[in-house]
C-alpha cells in the first residue's frame, strides 16, 4: 500500500511566502485518498485517509491505538460525559468511541472542508451517524463562548512545536471556561485512577479534563516545552498511564485531598 506523504509546511506559512498559484494548484491535484482497514479493540474500522494533505490530517498515528486500549480499560470515566476531540484528522478515534460506547462526542480539526467531509465519509463507511464537527484553528477564538465538554481528548498532536502556544491557548479556554449544562453531584463525577510507576498514589480526574496519548518520538526538550507551557498557563499535568496524560485546571492539592476523604 502506498505510504501517506507528510507535508506540514502550510501550517507555518505567513504573508511573506511567495508560493505561486501554479504551485498551489499542483498541491491540490496531489490530494488523493487511500482506504485502509485498521484493527481497534473489538472491531475493525475502514478509514479513508489522505495520501497527501497540506494539513497532515492524513494518518492514524500510534498514539490513537494505544489510547483506545487505555480508554477501553477506563471506560467508566467516559460514561455520561460530553467529549470533544482536538485534531481529529480522519475521525477514527471518535468513530471508535461512538461505535463502542455510544458516547456523546464532537470532532474538531483545522478549518478545512475536506477534513470535515472525510470524517463524515468515515462515519458513514463504518455505520455511525455523522458526528458533530467543529472547524477550529488552535489559538483562534473558539466557535462557542460556553464550552460544555467534560472531557477533551487527543492523540499524537504534539508534532508541531511552533503550534504549542496556540494549542495551549485553546486548551486553556476549553478547560477554564467550562460550563456544564447540568450540575453533576453524582459519585460518577469523581474518578480515581492509579498513576503508573507511582505506587500508592491515585490521580483524581475531575471535570473538565484533557486526556492525551502521545506516542510520536520528538526530543525531550520539545516535549517539555508543551508540558511546561501548560503549567505556566495554570494547568496541572499528570502522567496517568503508559504515555497517557491528564491536563486539568489548577486546583490546590489540599482541595483534592479533601475530596478524597
Automatic annotation (TrEMBL):
Pfam families: Methyltransf_16. It comes from the Eukaryota. Gene3D superfamilies: Vaccinia Virus protein VP39 (3.40.50.150). This is Uncharacterized protein. Signal peptide: none annotated. It comes from Acorus calamus (Sweet flag). Residues 17-26 have a biased composition (Acidic residues). Residues 1-30 are annotated as: Disordered. PANTHER family: HEPATOCELLULAR CARCINOMA-ASSOCIATED ANTIGEN, S-ADENOSYL-L-METHIONINE-DEPENDENT METHYLTRANSFERASES SUPERFAMILY PROTEIN. The lineage of its organism: Eukaryota, Viridiplantae, Streptophyta, Embryophyta, Tracheophyta. InterPro entries: Methyltransf_16 (IPR019410), SAM-dependent_MTases_sf (IPR029063).
Amino acid at each position: 500500500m502506498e505510504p501517506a506523504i507528510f507535508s506540514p509546511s502550510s501550517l507555518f506559512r505567513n504573508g511573506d511566502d511567495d508560493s505561486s498559484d501554479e504551485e498551489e494548484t499542483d498541491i491540490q491535484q496531489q490530494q488523493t485518498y487511500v482506504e485502509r482497514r485498521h484493527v481497534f479493540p473489538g472491531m475493525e474500522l475502514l478509514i479513508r485517509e489522505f495520501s497527501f494533505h497540506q494539513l497532515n490530517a492524513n494518518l492514524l498515528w500510534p498514539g490513537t491505538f494505544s489510547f483506545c486500549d487505555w480508554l477501553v480499560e477506563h471506560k467508566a470515566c467516559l460514561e455520561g460525559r460530553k467529549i470533544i476531540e482536538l485534531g481529529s484528522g480522519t475521525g477514527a478515534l471518535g468513530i471508535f468511541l461512538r461505535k463502542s460506547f455510544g458516547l456523546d462526542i464532537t470532532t474538531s480539526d483545522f478549518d478545512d472542508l475536506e477534513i470535515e467531509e472525510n470524517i463524515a465519509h468515515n462515519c458513514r463507511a463504518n455505520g455511525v451517524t455523522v458526528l458533530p464537527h467543529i472547524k477550529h484553528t488552535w489559538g483562534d477564538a473558539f466557535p462557542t463562548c460556553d464550552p460544555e465538554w467534560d472531557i477533551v481528548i487527543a492523540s499524537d498532536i504534539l508534532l508541531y512545536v511552533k503550534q504549542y502556544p496556540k494549542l495551549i491557548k485553546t486548551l486553556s479556554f476549553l478547560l477554564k471556561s467550562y460550563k456544564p449544562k447540568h450540575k453533576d453531584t453524582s459519585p460518577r463525577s469523581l474518578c480515581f485512577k492509579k498513576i503508573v510507576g507511582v505506587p500508592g498514589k491515585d490521580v483524581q480526574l475531575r471535570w473538565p479534563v484533557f486526556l492525551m496519548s502521545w506516542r510520536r518520538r520528538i526530543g525531550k526538550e520539545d516535549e517539555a516545552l508543551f508540558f511546561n507551557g501548560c503549567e505556566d498557563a495554570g494547568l496541572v499535568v499528570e502522567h496517568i498511564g503508559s504515555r497517557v496524560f491528564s491536563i486539568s485546571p489548577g486546583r490546590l492539592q489540599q482541595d483534592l485531598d479533601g475530596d478524597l476523604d
